Amino acid sequence: MLELETRLKDIVVKLFEINALKFGDFKMKVGVNSPVYFDLRVVVSYPELMEQISVLLWEFCQGEVACDHVCGVPYTALPIATLISSRFRIPMLIRRKETKQYGTRRLVEGSFAPGDRCVIVEDVVTSGSSILETRQDLRAEGLSVTHALVVVDRQQGGAQALQQHGLSMLSLLTLSKIMHILCEAGRVDRAVVESVTTYLSRTQFDGSNFAPAPEKPLAGAGEGRLRMPLQARAELARSPVAARLLRLMARKQTTLCVAADVTTASELLELAGQVGPHVCLLKTHADILGDFGEAAVAGLLQLARRHDFLLLEDRKFADIGHVVQLQYSQGPHRIASWADLVTAHPVSGEAVLTGLSAALAAVGPEVQRGCFLVAEMSSQGHLASPDYLAATTQLAERQARLVCGLVCQSPGLLRAPGQLQLTPGVRLETASDGLGQCYHSPREAVLERGADVAVVGRGVTRAEDPGAAARRYRDLLWAAYLQRVGLQAE
Ligand code: S5P
User: Ligand 1 centroid to 455 CA: how many Å?
Assistant: First the structure.
């Protein structure tokens, strides 16, 4: 044990010397400030230290972990896993980090058999979310993952979060241990140690910060959003518009939204009249109509009342709050005055919602409006990273009075049953449109991708009889919804 302690001290001091352990005021990935920052990426430039860490990490877990493969969390832990693999002859696996749902490429590279045991290797753990994401992909490929091996545990709840998800974490070093070693070695003073101790006592992440998508889509999703009937979810909605939409869907027995991407007001009104009886939402792009104006608005509102649907203007606001406020309430479209719902990209963070709220304050408290945050686009090669998606979900949950849900393609993002997942890219003919759109069938959208509302555009608008097509999509979607919530066996 003494030998272990000596080797650990040596590693910690070297990490400090190469500036892999920094002290100051840092903004962390999970959105809080920290007095300490570990950047172990730099270790790649110090091969001897890299080897020392990798070897000790592996030796340290011997007797605790039996495995057939090692897999490093991209990217910092990849070389560590590589060295372990090479030195101890443990076959390695590589999990792809890039978005994968549109390609046919595998999630995990390497040769393995279903049921093989794989240990995850990670450099630094804060909330544990990166490990859970990696485990999710490994399990999706049939691998068994019960242990994660980490160099540094920041002691902020990551181990507990992993434990809650059935994963044991073995860590070579903890943040407290590092502080102790550095203080003993005279590398940091007591004030720094105390600031780290105070920080640790104040910033603990609990397991709810990350809910991984189910391994097999929707399997075991439990009592959450995906299994709960619409009517019950309406009771849990914090947004009055989300509650209204959920009730409307239950009452009218439809989860279909038609994307009315036509270019004249008369086409729009004709289409709205045809599909109105079958939809819960009609989605518009006012800016592609050459003659959008008061007549179109009046016609739409009349049809929405007659056929009982809500209007979603898919404006995809994305600017600073001030401009969003003006775009929402002014200009030729005056969206806030007629659209029950709008879409917004959260790329400017809270600002986009602040802009929408400011516009609504001027319209008056009696109008009920809501917004969908666009998390993940249906286009091939979209740029939303896991971090962006997680931050978007958190924003949606924080602002649930205004945010009715997310526009996305994955079942694991939206958890709150009172919010809705809107999923575009739905069509029976699932070939792409040649412009990057990715299509999925209605069943796949609901049962595998977690759609609450499915958006169908050209599948309906290009049909010979849009009304009949809307009815067909509505029936397929509703049957899939009933199956998902267990109200009707297949
Ligand atoms: O990720 C997205 C988000 C949206 S809102 N992908 C999308 O396609 N949409 C919208 O859904 C898009 O603006 C269009 O109005 C509709 C899809 O139309 P379709 O004809 O491809 O079904």
Answer: 7
